[in-house]
Amino acid sequence: AIVIGSGLEELIAAGNLAAQGLRVLVLEPSESVGGAAASAELLPGFRVDPVFTDAGFLDPRALRDLAPERHGLALLSPDPVLSAPAMDGGEPLVLWRDAGRTRASIARRSPADAARWASFADRMATFAAILEETAARPAIRPAGPLRDLAPFLGLGRRVRALGRERMTELFRVLPLPAADLLDDAFDDDLLKGAL
Q1: Nearest Cα to Cα of residue 193 among 107, 115, 87, 37
Q2: CA–CA dist 154, 116 (Å, integer)
Q3: Chain centre distance of CA 109
Q4: Is the pTM of this model over 0.85?
Q5: What is the rounded CA–CA span in Å between residue 98 and residue 80?
Q6: Which residues fall within 8 angstroms of residue 84, CB to CB, at 6 or more apart?
Q7: Digit-coded pLDDT (tens) for 106-126
């Protein structure tokens, strides 16, 4: 098998093909692997992540199956997660892995947004878990047999268990542009921009 490119998705595909016993050749035109997640030296001695700062968008099962630590790859979890300087020279916004520290950072810029943070983060984490479960299932064939729907019955029950208000909010949020969702939730433009 020939895999063109060495981004994270391509490396996962190559690893899965190799695990199935195929000989795999990965072709990459640049000097390093990792695609958009690879650090680049912009100035001598100054390395940055040009696009992705972590592999959080990847399915954790794919990372676990490939066992990257066996190959010398250490996945880092930086803290703070994000630091956004204020354009007006005011208080920067710092998002931490610790919810309390994040809430305190938001409060220095907007006490009202800080009060809404925990509810927003909880709601988004709940919705993200449902979307992850949905994405992990094989796609349904439009004209396929009814038995193909069986795996989704449990997911339907999970969505229904959210209750009427949260279920309605999930279906309202799904097609909503991120800017509209954040405008509904927060006042501070720096927080909305960072998210």
Answers
A1: 87
A2: 31
A3: 25
A4: no
A5: 9
A6: 92, 93, 94, 190, 193, 194
A7: 999 999 999 999 999 999 999
